[in-house]
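Escalation from tier 1.

The customer reports that the assembly of two entities below gives different structure tokens on two consecutive runs. Tier 1 could not reproduce it. I'm attaching the input and our single run for tier 2 to review.
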Amino acid sequence: QVQLVQSGAEVKKPGASVKVSCKASGYTFTSYYINWVRQAPGQGLEWMGIINPRDGNTDSTQKFQGRVSMTRDTSTSTLYMELSILRSEDTAVYYCAREGLGSGSLSIWGQGTLVTVSS
Amino acid sequence: EIVLTQSPGTLSLSPGERATLSCRASQSVSSDYLVWYQQKPGQAPRLLIYGASSRATGIPDRFSGSGSGTDFTLTISRLEPEDFAVYYCQQYGSSPRTFGQGTTLEIK
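Tier 1 run:
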């Protein structure tokens, strides 16, 4: 079945970087855009960015530009989101989510990865 | 950036009642690019409605979406116990894609 499986929880110190992985299966990896969305504890959803797995092109919200890197490995059908210069406010659950074909609606979600930033 | 404002912040209703949730955009959003999600505690969001009014696969017909321009509505005709959750609207017509802040639907 179609699924996205994310890497496990991480604890990082302020100023460090974190790299979250999202392994796709059950569909043609290069055919569907992947979005990254985060959710701070008790807060709403925040869109971070999007990657086209076919060519690696990305777009992200200005808030994260310069700190976020979204990449993919087509040989393993895995997406990566790396966030650098972590601050306590980056503590959140990070989700990867797949769009529908030709649609930006997010129909398939990973299980989420909790990233905790604490000294 | 398009700001989506959802109201009310919290809606307290009983099973069997009708729920009406609002999503207002700071600029016009094409209906094609307005979606609704449901999220329960400890779970990832689930797609409910896409294209403002089309139900996603497996979504019961008690869920319906409507609206255009800057005003969109999610209606749940008769609340079931499993419908009590947080609901988010999202637009993806312009970058950055944005979410509303959410409406919590709680049992009265």
